[in-house]
Each structure stands twice: as structure tokens, then as C-alpha cells.
Specification:
GO terms for molecular function: FAD binding; oxidoreductase activity, acting on the CH-OH group of donors, oxygen as acceptor. Keywords: FAD, Flavoprotein. This is FAD-linked oxidase. It holds the Pfam family FAD_binding_4. With 437 residues, the chain is an alpha+beta fold. The chain has a domain of 217 residues: FAD-linked oxidases, C-terminal domain (Vanillyl-alcohol Oxidase, Chain A, domain 3), CATH 3.40.462.10. 25% of the residues lie in helices and 26% in strands. The chain contains twelve helices and 20 strands. An eight-stranded antiparallel β-sheet has the order 15-11-13-12-18-19-17-20. Strands 5, 6, 7, 8, 9 and 10 form a six-stranded antiparallel β-sheet that branches. Strands 1-2-4-3 form a four-stranded mixed β-sheet, with no helix packed on it. The longest helix has 16 residues. It is globular and about 60 Å long. The chain starts with a strand and ends in a 6-residue tail after the last helix.
């Protein structure tokens, strides 16, 4: 492989790394990969923190390995290379009546990244996590290709799903696609006046896809107000897609000042009529609403941003209320805040999803945010919840390890697969996830 010095950044742009990067064009490049060239792999770097980074080391960019290898229309099983983007699969297959079973908030996520993070989507309450729809994975372990599945090398399979890329290089995978009605989606939007009502509506929703936007600046009786979106796929005329836009430069700090955010959130909340409404959208506009704004992370300025994302058990909803209270009174939140109902189901030892309520809030990278986020993390730990490592840039290792009950099983499998630590990333080192102490 050829290596080129580059600077690589997580999507939050707070953490970056100087690395030697290789971009293989074909799978045969791995057949000549020497032991000294083994390095962690990454995709489109949509993880917000340092999960894809390897400062002062080597990394393998998998994005050119994006071929569709085989599709069985009888079973819905699709085999693809690791660099294939979920948004591209959605664009190609939805008109044919198929969708990836789980879609995260960005279509730029790759198959390899979706497996390494065991991503979840707006249908976790009915479909579970991405890993539950993975049939098999072709993994490069110790210089050799190995096929793993729930029945073949099951423990290694569980360590790979949500395993942060530490068990080997994900080369390709077979996944089960789900039937859909077409490439449009009917979305019902309704205002929700407060936190308790929001949880009740999420609990009782019968929609296939649900997600809530939260006004994280609202206080008092309005705490937790927002907009609930419920979606079902459909067929018919596709509405005109909105043109993509681009953020050409880093926004000034006042662009997301507390006053600006409060005003935006107020207007965004009121854009939905009192009686609610139903819209027909292109399917990608619903699943990947921010993808049409290229480089939207520049809205947070050159200092970047952090995202706090947690999930807490159902009976720990008061902890989530306390988090929203602290966020609202801090004046630090951006307009990007999401509430979801998570169902049962995750496949990997280090998978984030668990049954409960998930909250995600973005914060500009300021000293005040760096004080608030650890407090929110502490509340999560005390509630028996978890932090999502795909979004994390600030957590502490001891606390994270305690959040994942199968952590030691994961670490044992990782040490078998990568005993020399060639696949360690900045996140693994920061959180000391492969430490035996």
C-alpha cells in the first residue's frame, strides 16, 4: 500500500490526528499487506470524536472499497464492501422496494462504520440495531481473511459489532435488507408541549419510524417540548428534492449564541401547526436531513463542537429530565437536540443501544460545555445508562467501562485478534479500553 501524510478529523472537529493514510482501490491490496502495515481502518469520519483517528500512526481509508458484490432479491441479502455508503444503498434500492434495515442520521456512514459502531436509527423500537441484521462479516484478522457470523466464530462476531474496529479490518459484509413500499415517506409532525407528554407519545407510537426534536432551551412547564415525527414508507410521485447547500467557511461565534438559538428553536417549534400535519418527502430527506447541507459542522466555528448522546433505562426517565433541566439553564445547547425511544436489542458486546430513552444534544466547543458534559455523563452513569462512543470526545475510561456489562468479553476477544495493538485508535487510548488494569 502507498501511504500519504494527512490530517484527519472527527466530524466534531475538536479532535484531529496527523497520520499516514492509505486508500486501497481493490481488495487484493490486503493480500500483500505486511504485518508492519496493519493499521486501523476508517470510513467517512462521521464519528464525532476520535474513534477514526490514529495520531502519529497509520490508518487505512476504506471509502474507495464501495462496491456492491451481490444481491438476492428472494432473501433480501446484500453483500457489499465496507466502504459502501448507506445513503447510496438507500438511493439505489428504495425505488426497487428495499431499504437497509437500520439507517443512522447520515447517509455518509459506511457499512464498515455502521458495523463497528452498531448504529441505530429511527426504528430501533421495532428493528433493533444494525448488527442484528448483519448475516456475516469478512474480517482481516492477523493478515488472514476470516468469515464470521452469529454461528461461525460467534464470540468474535459479537466483539466486532460495536467493537470500534479493534477485532480486525472489516472488508465486506452480508446484510439483510428490509422490504419497503417505495422511495417516498409519509411523515406526520405534531407539536409536543412538554417532557412527560413526549415520553408518553414515544411509548405509545405505532409508527415504524419515530424521532423527536427537542427544544433544549425550553424551561419550566415547557421543559422538553418539541416536535414528534412519525414516518411510514410509501410509493408514488417523488417530491422535488431540495438542492444541496454548502457551508463555505467557519461561522462566527455569535451564529449560535444563546439568543440566536432560543429564537431559532421558537420559530422551528411553531413551524408545525397546532393541529399537526402530514407531509410526503423523498425518503433520504427524512432519514438524512442534514446531509443536504455539506460541511454543516462548520456552523460551530473553527473550534468545533461536542455531542453528548446517552441512553437511560425506561424507569430512569427522571434522570433525563434532570439532564434537560441542566442543559436548558446552561444556555449552551444548539438547535440540534434529539429524543428517541429505544427498544430491546443490540448484538455486540460494546453496542450502545439498550431499551430506554436516548438523548443527543450538540454543544459548541467552549469551556462551559467542557464542564457541563461530564456532569451529564455522571448522571447517565448513576442512572445505569450508557454514552455513545461514536459521538464521544470527552468521556473517561473508568466510567465508560462500567457502562458496558460485556466489556471484559469484548476486551478478551480483541486481545486474541490483535495482540500487538496494531488497531488501537486515539479513542481506545484515551479511554484505556484495552488496558488490563
Amino acid at each position: 500500500m502507498r501511504w500519504k501524510s494527512e490530517k484527519v478529523s472527527g466530524w466534531g472537529r475538536v479532535l484531529s490526528a496527523s497520520s499516514e493514510v492509505a486508500r486501497p482501490e481493490r481488495m487484493h491490496a490486503f493480500e500483500t499487506l505486511s504485518e508492519g502495515d496493519l493499521a486501523p481502518a476508517f470510513g467517512n469520519c462521521r464519528s464525532y470524536g476520535d474513534a477514526p483517528l490514529n495520531n502519529n500512526g497509520r490508518s487505512i481509508d476504506m471509502t474507495r472499497l464501495d462496491r456492491i458484490l451481490e444481491f438476492d432479491a428472494e432473501t433480501g441479502i446484500l453483500e457489499v464492501e465496507a466502504g459502501c455508503r448507506l445513503g447510496e444503498l438507500t438511493r439505489l434500492f428504495a425505488p426497487q422496494g428495499w431499504l437497509p434495515a437500520v439507517l443512522p442520521g447520515t447517509g455518509f456512514a459506511t457499512i464498515g462504520g455502521a458495523i463497528a459502531m452498531d448504529v441505530h436509527g429511527k426504528n430501533h423500537h421495532v428493528a433493533g440495531s444494525f448488527g442484528q441484521h448483519v448475516v456475516s462479516i469478512t474480517l482481516l484478522v492477523d493478515g488472514k481473511k476470516k468469515t464470521i457470523s452469529p454461528k461461525n466464530n460467534a464470540s468474535l462476531f459479537k466483539a466486532t459489532l460495536g467493537g470500534l474496529g479493534q477485532t480486525g479490518i472489516i472488508l465486506s459484509a452480508k446484510i439483510t435488507m428490509l422490504p419497503c413500499k417505495g422511495d417516498v415517506i409519509m411523515v406526520t409532525e405534531r407539536r409536543v408541549d412538554g417532557f412527560d407528554e413526549f415520553l408518553s407519545l414515544l411509548d405509545t407510537s405505532s409508527a415504524t419510524y419515530t424521532v423527536g426534536w427537542i427544544d433544549a432551551t425550553a424551561k419550566g412547564n415547557a421543559l422538553g417540548r418539541g416536535i414528534l415525527e412519525e414516518g411510514e414508507t410509501g410509493s408514488g410521485l417523488v417530491p422535488a428534492r431540495q438542492k444541496s447547500k454548502s457551508i463555505p467557511f467557519n461561522a462566527p461565534s455569535f451564529a449560535l449564541s444563546p439568543l440566536t438559538v432560543r429564537l431559532f428553536n421558537k420559530l422551528y417549534f411553531k413551524r408545525v401547526p397546532d393541529h399537526g400535519r402530514t407531509l410526503v418527502k423523498p425518503i433520504t430527506d427524512f432519514f438524512f436531513p442534514l446531509d443536504r447541507i455539506h460541511d454543516w459542522n462548520k456552523l460551530y466555528g473553527k473550534r468545533g463542537f461536542h455531542q453528548f448522546q446517552c441512553v437511560v433505562p425506561i424507569d430512569q426517565a427522571p434522570a433525563l429530565r434532570e439532564m434537560l433541566t441542566q442543559i436548558a439553564h446552561s444556555g449552551l445547547a444548539s438547535p440540534l437536540a434529539v429524543l428517541k425511544r429505544m427498544g430491546e436489542g443490540s448484538e455486540g458486546f460494546m453496542s450502545f443501544p439498550m431499551e430506554g430513552y436516548a438523548l443527543a444534544v450538540d454543544f459548541p466547543n467552549t469551556e462551559a460545555a467542557r464542564v457541563l458534559i461530564p456532569r451529564l455523563e455522571k448522571l447517565t452513569a448513576e442512572a445505569g445508562g450508557r454514552i455513545y462512543l461514536a459521538k464521544d470526545s470527552m468521556s473517561s475510561g473508568v466510567r465508560i467501562r462500567s457502562m458496558y456489562p460485556d466489556y471484559e468479553k469484548w476486551r478478551d476477544e480483541v486481545e486474541k485478534s490483535d495482540p500487538n495493538g496494531a488497531l488501537k485508535t486515539d479513542l481506545i487510548r484515551r479511554l484505556e479500553l484495552r488496558s488490563t488494569k
